[in-house]
Amino acid sequence: MLESIGLAVQLVSASQAKNLKGRPKTGKLDAMWLARLTQWGMLRPSFVPPAAIRRVRDFTRARTDLVRERTRVLQRLEKLLEDAMIKITSVARDGLKAKSVVAMVAALTAGERDPRTLADLAKGPLRGKRDQLAEALDGMFDSRHGVIAQMLLDQVAFLDQRIRQMEDQAIAALAQVTESWGVDAAGQTGPGCGTGPDSPVLAAAYRLAEIPGISVWLAIVIIAEIGLNMAVFPTPAHLVSWAGLCRSASQSGTRHGKGKQKKGNSYARAAAGQAALGAAGTATFPGERYARIARRRGKAIAQVAVARSIMIIAWHLLSGPAARYRDLGPDWHASRTSRDKKIRTHIHALKALGVTVAITDAEQQAA
Question: pTM higher than 0.70, yes or no?
Fold first, then answer.
């Protein structure tokens, strides 16, 4: 409302605007203190995206909340099946997310109790596990479980419908933002333009979707959180810090401690983490980076490290509309490791196993 009448509104952290201790506290004095701090330039405004981006963010966050609610309903359904001695999720890798499993549960609620008949509803890779499915479906499922299971299935179907509706609304809202448009090969710009690989300027969402692990929808979620104007983040490090993908500084003299984990933007951090897991199994630079760090420091730290790299790449791609993602390749680190260092590493590993190694240079032996 204040923005609509032309006022510049700042959202400031309360930790920066605290009044001095021992001073009287009233609404008028607080307003005077805030005015002085603003006049002296002692308040740092928090990042608030434009109204058009906030509309997209409302839909993406609503979808995220619906997905979480859908997960909770599926967990309740799985608990109900376990109560009825139905262990189908121990056989199906995707659990209740698989369409075959949903069809089996629906058949159970419809009154079918024959385990072999239920197992024959399996499709795809699950058809090879029909014997295991029949054994897992041989439980104590009765009409009481069927009523509750049907109610939970109806909730899942309702949430799926609302999730698709929020996706459509978010895509339509982003299409109204002119900064997100691309340019086709024919030079046309507008909603839906710049989505092909031959486009000179890709649309913002498709530009980010070139990053391994990021789908078009995940790109929309990231844009809804960080916006399209990267001028508000002077460097990629500022964006990483704002998203909470790095620790706060903790340094005293020559001692560098382990700083506290920042809260940051939980939605942006979750999207970057999801993208990192998506890139983990790919033969790309982010995928190789995940595997290399996971071997030494664990999967959790590797996920955060790759998520940080993805946010840095996103900052560069959104800073320049004509920028395109170019993967460095999975062998980027290996190609920059010196030959002598590799030899020392392998010798050290062999000696740790109790093996004596004699090194002979192949070039000198050939000479």
Answer: yes
